[in-house]
Design the sequence.
């Protein structure tokens, strides 16, 4: 096992290590990051007076919206000159959240991603195809760093160009695939169409994350690709992938607790919930130096599993994600908020702020359709004018969301008006994550 | 002559045209010419009625998007070459035909064509000079 000593550390020792690191973290951010200093001071939390992990509960929660306020450098705990790499969330509902990585942070990322791949049975000698997108998105480089740290041959394919993905798999004898689960299914389907039998090839493991996927989808991927499909978890605000990952038991994701401290809270009251109770996952980075994060509200719903795992790792696990408590959609691995769609529509003269987002799955690919009401102001007797309008909205949506959407014009007043929260989203994808 | 045409937006689902035409009939609106333009995403039905305002009001009762716009009505002789002469003339004047359709019933050896022409000012002049305004 990769870093076996720390991953199998007795729980008492692990808690002591976490407390030690938490105290150092609080002292660091209080000293270096005005954003956190103000919040800690307001809450009356004195870093030197923290004596137990339970004290963390008194530290204010941090939301994506809080973090955006201090774009771009407000979360850095080191001078910008010590930051060697930057990643960003997709900037979905305004400014993005910037993650700055010091050399130490990159070391940390390599370590936790190596653990992730090792937990799924990879080692030096494996041939890893990274088909997550490379760039500001953390999937590609995160997977890459894990592969190279592990000593495996790492192919930085990035996403897309499925024909080349398949050729590369065949030519190199790829043994592990990293991508979004929907892309894995798409690759499987393309392979079948081209008469390529991946199931009997050397491919044996896949590491899939960045979007919710059901148990049925896991079985489907495992059967079609002839692999074990592991669920992995992470988020750009924390580090990227490498926060938690499944082991060979495939029964919950081990949180790499010596680096990321998990809590489950009641979304309404903010109260910390005991293991086994479902709530919102909150994470604190114990060892990040570039952009440390205190109690980040992930909006992901899950619960903590605090029972020994046959694999020997002593860290707590999170159940596979069970949903979100905001209206964020994850479409083809990209985070989409309804407000982004609304902002685009309101920029176009004549468009009413009534719209409906319909998300579905066509085979393995998510589809996004935006229904927009055809008003008299938009309507023309000429087909090409109406087509141009559709294309313009689609173009603007693509720019804003980063993924393609199909615009469907509908009759006025056919989209439901409601007194309270408008029902703007229809998600026809079935995602059930009960194990 | 200038005609007032009613255009109606139709969603792409099958069977969207029939209720519109049925409702116009119920309201006693007589259709003199009609054309359906469709794409794979939506359709636009355009028509000329005896009373455009009454037709528009009737269509709007259905809650669909509709509008009245001005198009040209041109009578051409009902013989081979009648249309070709008209189009050649418009072409020479650099007038584009956006769309064109014909009246449903023929009157006394002449066919009434409905044309959307751009630029409309130039088209109006050309047709007037040819005695077709």
Sequence:
């Amino acid at each position: 096992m990769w870093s076996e000593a720390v991953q199998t550390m007795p729980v008492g020792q692990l808690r002591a290590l976490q407390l030690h690191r938490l105290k150092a973290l609080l002292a660091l951010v209080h000293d270096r990051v005005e954003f956190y200093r103000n919040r800690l001071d307001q809450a009356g939390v004195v870093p030197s007076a923290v004596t137990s992990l339970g004290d963390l509960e008194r530290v204010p929660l941090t939301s994506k919206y809080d973090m955006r306020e201090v774009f771009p450098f407000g979360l850095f705990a080191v001078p910008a000159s010590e930051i060697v790499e930057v990643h960003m969330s997709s900037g979905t509902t305004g400014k993005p959240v910037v993650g700055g990585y010091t050399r130490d942070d990159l070391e940390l990322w390599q370590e936790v991603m190596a653990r992730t791949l090792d937990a799924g049975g990879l080692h030096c000698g494996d041939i890893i195809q990274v088909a997550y997108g490379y760039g500001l998105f953390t999937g590609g480089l995160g997977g890459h760093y894990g592969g190279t740290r592990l000593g495996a041959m790492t192919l930085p394919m990035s996403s897309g160009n499925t024909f080349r993905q398949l050729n590369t798999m065949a030519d190199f004898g790829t043994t592990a695939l990293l991508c979004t689960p929907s892309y894995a299914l798409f690759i499987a389907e393309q392979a079948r169409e081209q008469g390529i039998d991946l199931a009997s090839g050397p491919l044996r493991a896949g590491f899939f994350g960045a979007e919710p996927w059901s148990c049925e989808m896991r079985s489907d991927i495992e059967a079609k690709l002839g692999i074990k499909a592991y669920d992995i978890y992470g988020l750009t605000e924390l580090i990227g992938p490498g926060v938690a990952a499944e082991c060979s038991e495939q029964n919950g994701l081990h949180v790499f607790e010596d680096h990321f401290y998990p809590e489950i809270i009641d979304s309404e009251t903010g109260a910390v919930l005991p293991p086994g109770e479902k709530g919102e996952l909150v994470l604190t980075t114990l060892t990040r130096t570039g952009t440390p994060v205190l109690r980040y509200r992930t909006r992901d719903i899950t619960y903590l599993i605090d029972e020994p795992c046959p694999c020997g790792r002593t860290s707590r696990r999170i159940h596979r994600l069970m949903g979100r408590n905001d209206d964020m959609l994850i479409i083809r691995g990209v985070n989409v908020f309804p407000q982004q769609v609304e902002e685009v529509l309101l920029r176009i003269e004549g468009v009413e702020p009534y719209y409906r987002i319909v998300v579905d799955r066509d085979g393995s690919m998510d589809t996004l359709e935006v229904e927009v009401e055809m008003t008299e102001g938009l309507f023309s007797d000429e087909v090409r004018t109406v087509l141009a309008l559709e294309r313009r909205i689609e173009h603007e949506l693509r720019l804003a969301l980063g993924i393609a959407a199909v615009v469907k014009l509908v009759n006025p007043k056919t989209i439901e008006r409601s007194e309270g929260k408008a029902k703007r989203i229809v998600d026809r994808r079935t995602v059930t994550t009960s194990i | 002559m200038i005609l007032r045409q009613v255009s109606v937006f139709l969603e792409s689902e099958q069977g969207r045209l029939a209720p519109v035409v049925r409702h116009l009939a119920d309201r006693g609106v007589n259709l003199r010419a009609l054309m359906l333009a469709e794409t794979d995403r939506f359709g636009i039905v355009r028509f000329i009625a005896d009373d455009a305002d009454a037709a528009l009001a009737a269509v709007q009762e259905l809650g669909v998007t509709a509008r009245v716009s001005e198009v040209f009505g041109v009578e051409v002789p009902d013989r081979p070459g009648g249309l070709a002469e008209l189009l050649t003339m418009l072409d020479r004047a650099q007038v584009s035909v956006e769309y064109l359709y014909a009246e449903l019933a023929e009157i006394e050896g002449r066919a009434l064509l409905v044309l959307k022409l751009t630029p409309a000012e130039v088209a109006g002049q050309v047709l007037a000079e040819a005695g077709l305004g």
Summary: Residues 69-326 of chain A form a domain with the Rossmann fold fold (CATH 3.40.50.12780). The longest strand of chain A covers residues 365-373.
